[in-house]
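Appendix B. Raw example, untouched.
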Amino acid sequence: MLDDRSKQILQAVIQLYISSPGPVGSRAVTKKFPIGLSPATIRNIMSDLEDMGFLRQPHTSAGRVPTDSGYRYYVDALAADRPDPDTEFASELSRKLELIRTDVNSFLDSASRMLSELSHYIGISVSPNAGQTTLSRIELVPYRKNQIAVILITDEAVIRNRIISVDQEMSREDLNRLAGYINERFGGHTLDDIRKTILEEMADERVLCDDLITEAMSICRNVFPVSESDIFISGVSEALTLPDFCDIGRIRGLLRTIEDKHVILSLLEKISETDSPQVFIGSENPLDELKQFSLIAAPYREGSRPIGAIAIIGPTRMNYSQAITLVDITAKFITDIFSYSR
């Protein structure tokens, strides 16, 4: 445990380093913070903090910079004194509330962009796993010759649109009969269960002797999405302008990790059972490519069930107070949206 003076000095060094990426000296602390201590006393405390592993000195004649342990102590202290949410950010999210009724992916893409724009780091959002959503009904609408528009509506009020080709031109009456059969046969089932049933029935020639069933199965096979989440990433080019991202080798590793969708999904799934933003600082990250960066992530839910996640990736020299707040209120807003949409 640190005494009050050590906490003040550690907080001051971290805040100064976040605002300007250079070693922080004792005189800078006395000029910016009314701590009431002499530079010599502050130097001694900073030396003690270095001995405890919270600060390090890049060069013998330089000031100190925070270590991962220093950031961790700082972040844990923030958790007990969370600032008020950014009202402008909250208002903008609120204005986008209705988007969930027509296109959940557009909303989540917008959420990742807003996270990036407001934090100046990399914003990430992961969509719900399509296979776990429940079919409420399907609508089939004539579109062009040998093409139809398929509208999937789930119990979560998420609407998915898709244009597919069919073997022959179909009338609205034909499409209504097909939609009626599909809704009666599959309504109330998850898309994963529907897909499994379709594969089983498509292999049963006796079932497919019926032209209606054959056409319905063909449409379903082409329509229902694969059981996989989508990932939306924003702000990579902007983040690369930060001085922390000047090491090309580090950036290549980060970009490879970000581009590997399954790696990010696997990482974000680890936080799906938590109730608040999780902060992984530098060496705490489970992936080697992220060990020189920080990741803040939080799940969003449909009821009590975690269905997706949002996150920010940035340097360890991150404005944690702002980033944690942005991730927290974004996850809560998206959770409210899914609850509101039911």
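End of appendix B.
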